[in-house]
Amino acid sequence: MGAVLVVFSVMPSLSIRSGTGYRHSQYYDPPPGSAHTSRMDRQELGAFLRSRRERLRPQDVGLPSGPRRRTPGLRREEIAVLAHISTEYYVRLEQGRAPRPSGEVLAGIAAALRLTDAESDHLHVLAGTAPARTRLHRRDVRPSILALLDRLPQTAGLVISAAFEVLAWNDLAAALMEDFAVLAPEDRNLARRAFLGAERAEATLYGISDTAEFRHQVVMQLHATLARYPTDPAVTGLVDELRNTSPDFARLWEQHDVQAAPMLTKIFRHPVVGQITVDCDSLSLTDRDQHLVLYSAPPGSPGAEALALLNVLGAQASDYLR
């Protein structure tokens, strides 16, 4: 009939006694004080696994496609075989009903689903096997970073929190994008401005040519942020607001992507100086889970000349952006 039957067996090398019998150690919730450092988000983990499975094709993992596949992607039993775990346990994982998997099981699932390094890290965060952060994401910027922003007169720089809040900026960033000082703190959130700041979904943000790509990047990074800070009201509130009020955000959110492609260049269409092509560098400030974003241009280039003109115009250029 064209169907392929794969038979396998799992030989548990170690079992643990529970109150109702024996359970394989790979699938057993660890006792308090174990190496696991954060809670397991069962529902989000299941949704993430399902989204990754549905993106795989049989030929991606060396299996025949077969004539009768009613749903996209691989079957659950195929992933279980590739990961060397039972189909029943994998099904329960996708349904959000399984106990916490071990690192060995997660590694097998990551290999079976062909996850990237970023996706594999996200998998461990959702499973609660990654080191836990503090309950709230940080908004205080290191004084040395604030001083650095002021020492970059030819570079537009700003510091972004894990929830896309603009925490600090220099004068050139204000002239290039907008004067964040005149905005209320909640209005300095780039995720909110990208999805809710314009009447049309295709409208650009700050005149950048890749606004659609930036929106996708925002969703991907917020997925990872929510996994790291699942009880932070600022993070959960932002995600809920965007999912409930922006159809575009809700659509992208359901894709469960977590790895953003680097944005190496960016084109701004500024109302005063016109088109500006700049290099875009995002530097991770790991101690506070923040990013330093820098927009610069090679000396002598049209982009550098435009940034120099904005530097001279200063606050006057910001007035045109309001």
Question: Can you put this structure into words, describing what you see?
Answer:
Strands 4-3-7-6-5 form a five-stranded antiparallel sheet. A hairpin with a 3-residue loop joins strand 5 (about 265-270) and strand 6 (about 275-285). The protein has helices spanning about 40-55, 75-85, 85-95, 105-110, 115-125, 145-150, 170-175, 190-195, 210-230, 235-245, 245-255, 300-315, 315-320, and strands at about 15-20, 20-25, 155-160, 165-170, 265-270, 275-285, 290-295. It has about 325 residues and is α+β, with helices and mostly antiparallel strands. This is Helix-turn-helix transcriptional regulator. It comes from Streptomyces coacervatus.
Give the overall shape, derived from the CA principal axes. elongated
The share of residues in helices is 25-40%
Mean pLDDT, all residues: 82
Number of helices: 13
Q: Cα distance, first to last residue?
A: 66 Å
Largest sheet: 5 strands, antiparallel
- Number of strand segments: 7
Protein name: Helix-turn-helix transcriptional regulator
InterPro entries: Cro/C1-type_HTH, Lambda_DNA-bd_dom_sf, MLTR_LBD
Overview features:
elongated; five-stranded antiparallel β-sheet; about 325 residues; alpha+beta; two-stranded antiparallel ribbon
Annotate the secondary structure layout.
Elements: E1 15-18, E2 21-24, H1 42-55, H2 76-83, H3 87-94, H4 103-112, H5 117-127, H6 143-150, E3 156-160, E4 166-169, H7 171-176, H8 190-196, H9 211-228, H10 233-245, H11 247-253, E5 265-270, E6 274-285, E7 290-296, H12 302-313, H13 315-320
